[in-house]
Amino acid sequence: MRIALLLSACLLCVGTHAAPVDVASLDRGTWPEKLTSPALFDVASRAENLMFAHGLLASEALDDAALKQRLGLKIINRAAIDDLRRQLWQRLLENYTFAQQSCEVDASFCYLVENMDDLREEAGKLQVSEDSFYIGWAAPSHAFHERYLDELLRKAALFPQISSEVARFGDHERNGDELNDRLFLLTFDGGPAPVSGNTDWLVDYLRKQKMNATFFVLGSSLQTRVQRSSAAEVEAVYQGQCVGTQGWQYRSHSHWVDWQSSITRSAALVQNLMPENYVPLFRPPYGQRRADSQGFFQAQGLQVALWDIDSQDEPGKLKAEESAQRVLTLMLLWRKGVIVFHDTQDKARVALPQLLQATGQSGLGWQDCREAFR
């Protein structure tokens, strides 16, 4: 069995000042093994967890001035950053505990971790030697996790002035924490696409795979789609899928005067058109919503559906293959969660099949959309 050695000092040469606009992606070709078994999924998962923990631990040594410089911000919410770090450490410990259950099958990246102190110690001394089987992965993974950590820390630094998916405002907001290990929920934002477009292709592909997903639609786009086809055709498109809402327009609902009307109007449209597909979920565009909105959502019987695995497939960000590789790396890191693609983008048509092919033998499962967020 290959025993992973300690992360080499050469990783220190990787830059520590990722620009806020950078989006993290990792070439999975740098990892020398295919995920052809649950045990091999666990090996890769342990590796990504330790590498992310290594970067998280290092970031805690930064004072406020250094953190502001690294994140490109003049003001930061230190309390929100510290709270996020605590949540991340807890998640990492939980994940590593699950991932080390297969250490008897393959001991790579297996260390004695029984509590948080053990995890922090192993993360701090992580190294990969030059002659390691995994050396080609080490530096790219280090760079990925440093950049990804900056994405998360920056959002926390701006919270709650700019709300996002990294923190919740209450129990009416869900992000997939309650899912079981190795279980993922597939979601799509911003649709529907025009007639015979990406939405149609994706739902047809999912049905062929005997899968479903939650599609968060815009009321205006759904109304246009009905006008250009018919209500019956739209209902047929989403057959077997779940449909929630993103509001009437794809815009921030945190400072919009008509945010309540946007939500109720679009939810009513979906429920009237597709009562069998409708799920009482609101996905806030950009993750932005009001801190004082819990009463409204509870009165409407709605939950806010957040996410923790972002494909970054919007225009101007990652290419389709890069998006698929980012999602796969985050699946290995978080081991469960809510994945978000955009069904108005061509990239999802490439990324999703690549993702399913890469994970087909890894022992993970896909959450039935009708059972999610209950």
Automatic annotation (TrEMBL):
Domain NodB homology: start-end pairs: 182-369
Keyword Signal: yes
InterPro entries xref list: NODB_dom, Polysacc_deacetylase_ArnD
Signal peptide: 1-18
Keywords associated with the record: Hydrolase, Metal-binding, Signal
Pfam family, one: Polysacc_deac_1
PROSITE patterns, sorted: NODB (PS51677)
Record-given protein name: Polysaccharide deacetylase family protein
Biological source species: Pseudomonas asgharzadehiana
